[in-house]
Amino acid sequence: MITTELTRVIDSVGKDKGIERERIISAVEEAVLSAAEKLLKSKNQDKELEVSYNPEEGEVELFEYKEVVQTVNDSEVEISLDEASELDPETELGDIIGVKISPEYTRIAIHNAKQKVLQKLKEAEGKVIYEEFIGRKGTIIGGIVRRVDRRHIIVDLGRAEAVLPPDQQVPREYYKMKERIRAVLLDIRESPRGEPRLILSRAHTSFVMKLFESEVPEITEKIVQIKAISRDPGGRTKIAVTSNDSDVDAVGACVGMRGSRVQSIIQELRGEKVDIVPWSEDSARYVCNALSPAVVNKVVIDENSRSMDVIVDDDQLSLAIGRKGQNVRLASQLTEWKIDIKTESRVKQEQQEVLSLLTSLPSVSEVTASLLYNDGFYSLEHIAFCEPDVLMKVGSLNEEEVSTLQKAARMALMEKLEEIPVESGTDETSTAEEGQTSPPPDADVEVLQKDGQEKTSPS
Question: Which of the four pLDDT bands, split at 50, 70 and 90, describes residue 426?
Answer without folding.
Answer: very low
